[in-house]
Protein 1
Amino acid sequence: MILLVSDLHLEPERPDIVRAFLHLLETRARGAEALYILGDLFEAWIGDDAMGPFEREIATALRQLADSGTAIYLMHGNRDFLIGKAFCRRAGCRLLPDRHIADFHRQRVLLMHGDTLCTRDEGYQKLRRILRNPLTLFVLRHLPLTSRQKLARKLRSESRQQTRAKAMDITDVTEAEVEREMQAAQMTTLIHGHTHRPATHELQMSGQAAQRIVLGDWDSRGWVLEATPAGLTQRHFALDER
């Protein structure tokens, strides 16, 4: 069995989500072939050098799972794109690029965080291009820690205000972009997160049946997609479920 999650947005202010994730690592993920985290594991990440007790606790729990035999794969999200090699070494996980092709029990799938699919959100896409530019990343990583903390708070505040003001269709994926990505990768299954709209969408790609699976965000409940030889099944559960 392979497990996939996304958009946990872990932070000390949401201990219910943290407990549920740690419980997942200690139970269902043990014995799994792999755990894929498709972005936004953390609500914010300003650099590996800013790891404190909370971040180290999560890294230790992931390392314990990795040491038990479960491979862990991590993808950047729009909130934690500054996660780097130091965290991955500590957590025992492998950092994946956005647009990763995986083989789940002989079924090839395209994995993405999903933010680049929302092309109607032009303001976000412009900001994303700036923030992900290698020169910008270099500057961000070398800013004093206090400056990065202030910048992160500012960006989070602005993001929340802008998201509330935007129409629902603007913050969802663009179907033409979904089709373009899937055709470019020659995949008939796409799995992504980011939009916080869990669902399975049946598609037609050049006359061939296809599907787009959107992972759920962890907020009022948790979500896990299970990949087994029988297929792909997404389940939700109460955060306090034991």
Protein 2
Amino acid sequence: METTKVNLSIAVSSLFIFSFAVSVTASLSFDFYAASCPSAEFIIRNTVSSSTSNDPSIPGKLLRLVFHDCFVEGCDASLMLQGNNTEKNDPGNRSVGGFSVIESAKRVLEIFCPGTVSCADIIALAARDAVEVAGGPMIEIPTGRRDGMVSAASNVRPNIVDTSFTMDEMVKLFSNKGLSLLDLVVLSGAHTIGTAHCNSFRDRFQEDSKGKLRLIDKTLDSSYANELMKQCPIGAMPSVTVNNDPETSMVFDNQYYRNLLDHKGLFQSDSVLLNNDDTRKLVEDFANDQQLFFENWGMSFLKLTSVGVKTGDEGEIRRSCAATNA
């Protein structure tokens, strides 16, 4: 009965996502640049591929970048804007990377198709390509996003997931973005690649009287916790990072869900997915079937990159991703 219920929920959600995709393409289009810049997607994909060849951490950075952009002001490249009190300057975004890849693609596009391709589309397409470069599924997403002109640090914290979030807090935030419980579990799978700074999971440990860390979150596998404490001892430099996925850190696969079932989810916000019957069943399904994860990833990623998009006369097409045209 439990399996039937969850599978039915996936089927129903898939139908909803299809309907959602149809409505999205009323403002976005799968051939938006076919006439104005036919080489746009090739240029972006080539930039992501070459950048990853030089720095294997790029896919994880680009994937995190699209999340942090789309959850604040929608998918409008507001995170790219520089200046005092912009999103980029909020402490929650200071460890976000991949900006140089987006700027690099933008510079090439401005040569071949000046004033045509938005930074918002570049971010979405680069994240899509990053997944494929890392071994994940190749998917199509529509384009036509416009760049936003507002970027405020004060908007960041209320709109991004904190690694210490409870299940209820994550469900509420995702729901506010039009994302379902299924989307929450699927998109959490982004943690199958990328790295995290030590302070992002420090709340699972406590310093003892001898100045050493001890595990206080008993939901975490003890051997994994010991390895984390070795990599992130007291006094570790702020720049020290660990892999989100201790098994296949550079490969986009379903290992994240296997790790969760082994109680090796790096963040508290990962581990809480096992505390809910519905989300735990989805974790188990994706851990056992990578193709199922990939299929759902394509649909949930489409929804993510359609959050709060600006189209038509909204926003602008920036000449540089770091500044508005004004």
Protein 3
Amino acid sequence: MPTSDLSPLAAPPGTAQIGVTGLAVMGRNLARNLARNGYRVAVHNRTAARTRALVDDFGHEGAFVPAESTADLVASLERPRRLVVMVQAGAPTDAVVDELAGLLEPGDILIDGGNAHYDDTRRREQAMRAQGIHFVGMGVSGGEEGALHGPSLMPGCSDEAYAALAPLLETIAADTPDGTPAVAHIGADGAGHFVKMVHNGIEYADMQLIAEAYDLLRHVAGASPAAIARTFRTWNAGRLDSYLMQITAEVLDHTDTATGRPFVDIVDDRAGQKGTGRWTVQTALELGVPVSGIAEAVFARTVSGHTALREAARGLPGPARTELHPHDAERFTAQVEQALYASKVIAYAQGWHMIRTASQAYGWEIDPGAVARIWRAGSIVRAAFLDRIADAYCREPALAGLLADKTFAAEISEAQSAWRTVVATAARSGVPAPGFAAALAYYDALRADRLPAALIQGQRDFFGAHTYGRTDREGAFHTRWAEDRAEQRA
């Protein structure tokens, strides 16, 4: 593939080094990030007014080349062309990719930076490869602020395409705590978007667990939102240090100016979702990977949205919520911290198990330690905790799962008494804590000597002759249930 100097401002005058089409918030901010770092950026949007607004409002930040049409956009780029698509996933992305494919030439690089489904990315990559075009499915995490100031980037593509893009991506990515850029070549075709999907699934779980901790501290320990904010800030100074914990404290400490009430009390309790969490659960089922913590987080959001069903069930009987004595509340708060940390470990462990399984299934050869490293900055799930995940996989690259790491196993063992108390207290108090409970059930399932799946195998064989394995010999077996029962009665 032809190469060119990707250093800032190296292109001849009037030639853009990279293009961005789709100038909603994420696309606009990514284009600004590129321009701020010295790249000459061609910009295009289906609605030309948005292109003009970007140049008018932010033209002082760098060199923008506005394009009225996709043909103008492609013509403005130096060869090999590098072009980022930032439009809605699904049919809109297909439409843009198909249009651009007719204008690009062999050796050009087309980058989808949206939240595409990884299967769509694999399909598009195969189609573009047949035309000699490099297609990159790149996960972008960090929201609008990350896109502008430095996101975590997860490109999935060929080695050749990554080699050409790496200098540019490393320049615009966030800087991790050790100074390295928050970007890594994840793997081929759909690997980048797959890892971004799992990232979002873990994000769902992390947010749900923090919300459950808040709910328990509010309705069992009797703490106010402002007091819980102070507790979360304390936790954020320790092993639970994370962006999500930080912003949660800010939300809980915020007072609604219109009513003077805590902000969290005037917000409608229906949580939205854009689909990536649901994709994670659906894909996990297809891969046969248990992600119960992520699934419960997705279902909790779904339950919150069924307002008519919730209204109809609001009068159902259950335990009265009573607040703990202050001394007991202080002890319970410490137990909730233990349960939150342990459940968080489980959620991340499930996510990494899913990534490893998909990597083996699709031949992606994803480095699990690299995933943890690039999420340490820019991403929504950025946390000090990720350093320890990276270290675990550095010590043992073939680690079967996070709970197989001695350090994490020891911490979970230490936390489990408090964890069980919190789950039991939630049940006795009638406070839903599906994330905590599902994480504990997963932990107990992994450590069990025997699971009741043996009985399920017997049930399946009884009604469907599905056969079963035995512990004392190899092979598949079937019991003649009616005949054996008759013989035993005789």
Protein 4
Amino acid sequence: MSATSEIHDIMSRLGVEKSAYTGGDTPITSPVTGEEIARVTEISAADTKAAIDKAHDAFKAWRDVPAPRRGELVRLMGEELRAAKDDLGRIITIDVGKVTSEGLGEIQEMIDICDFATGLSRQLYGLTIATERPGHRMMEQWHPMGVVGVISAFNFPAAVWSWNAAIAFVCGNSVVWKPSEKTPLISLACKAVFDRAAARFGDAPDNLLTLLIGDKDVGEVLVDHPRVPVLSATGSTRMGREVAPRVAKRFGRSILELGGNNAGIVCPSADQNMALAAIAFGAMGTAGQRCTSQRRAFVHSSIYDEFVPRLKAAYQSVKIGSPLTTDALVGPLIDKRAADGMAKALEDAKAAGGTVTGGEEVDAGHSGTYYRRPAIVEMPEHAGIVCEETFAPILYVMRYDDLDDAIDMQNGVGAGLSSTIFTLDMREAEQFLSAAGSDCGIANVNIGTSGAEIGGAFGGEKETGGGRESGSDAWKAYMRRATNTINYSRDLPLAQGVSFDID
């Protein structure tokens, strides 16, 4: 069966209207086979504004629904995701090029965040605060914000939406979602799954979830619209530099998940088998197209000549090919632009004295596709192209002698998303996690840079944007805080002992 036929069968099973993926003017091509698999209709900027207004009306109805009741809708969404997991995972494989286990893993992540958000709906706690005034009580409450805009990227086309949407819904907000133009099919499927959950729920307002398939103009409306108080945007640092000041100009709140030039340090005491497996997945998984992909490795000089050849052997043995017809662990790059970027980065690395292993084009039997063998590049110094993020499976490897120097090199890039250290030395591990250690939003010990769990807040510092999504108390970004003081006495004492007597 062709990828086109399979996509159409799956979309039909999920209840997506055929016209949504066959009747449009914009062609969608699978990076796995190079064939056109769908045609979608893009929304105009003018219609986007009208859609946001309708989403605002939905918010006004939804904010009055008790939070545990809102959690019931998200619980039902999780049930529908479980029922559709195989189909949704297959769409991601065809639409994005992820291998089967990674496509299914992304849907599992969506199920997990629904479970988390359902519990959260009964835990939107505020504090009771000690007050200096007798006969008074001071407390804080958390209230919904309004319309939450979500701009997601191609590499996690469903999970990132769910991180935002599940939390936003239980917090009492409506959601307007603009997916990547490269991967709109999974968003159509997720919308159908949500609509089934909403039908079972019974009284969810219309337009609680709005899907906007469109180009940059649509995203700009979301960025600038005054009725979108919260905007979560996932993409490049370049995109974030445009989005952040525009949202700030209208005093909106942005949750930015931008670039990541993630590193791992391999210490003399490291469990080398563990480090090898973690780095291999971190650097090669999803063909290096994760924001948390490992892109740099600092290996201690005492073990470099033992460890790096083993890593090279793993790279040479990994299978690259179609995730639809093979058991390959590495699928295609998303498009020609990504392949060209990889080739240019490798050229720059060679010009700077790097030694490249891998990086060759792999013939997967499909024209118009971009399969590449992951590359290891041994670099003489931490400079130039090493300090730039290339969204492709390139791992730059460098020696180090002193841990302080390795940490400085790890921190010496613009991005600050994910990091790790492989060591059995408690002092090294604790130093890495201390204020003098990694400056990233995610700092790990003896696990890879990628594969974050939904229970922790996800995001990074510096050019990664500073936003947090998913677990912990990231929910607070989707709500507004109100500090309340109630006077139940017969007097009116002022704070700080101020006296203001009126005759």
